[in-house]
Amino acid sequence: MIQINSSNFENEVLKHSGDVVVEFYKPDGCGNCEQMKPIMEEFEKRNPTVKVCKYECGSTPDEISSTYQFRMFPGIFSFSAGKPIR
Questions:
Q1: What is the 3-state secondary structure (H, E, C) of 19-73?
Q2: Domains of the chain, earliest start first
Q3: Picking from 11-15, 28-32, 51-55, which range would have the lowest pLDDT averaged per residue?
């Protein structure tokens, strides 16, 4: 998995020509995030053509995490050719 942040999100996700899955997570005290870790690792193994990324969300939402409004962690979003898949 590729660890991304606000400085490389555009290049790693929005400018990527293929499919990308991004997990927005909290590093501490997020039981759901810990439970998703092996699932995301297995997904990455089974889908080698999909770029799998993790975006650490701090205690204060930044522009990136605010753009993809989610109500709980982890927030998982799929992108194809730089566009969110709804």
A1: EEEEEEECCCCCHHHHHHHHHHHHHHHHCCCCEEEEEECCCCCCHHHHHCCCCCC
A2: 2-84 (3.40.30.10)
A3: 28-32
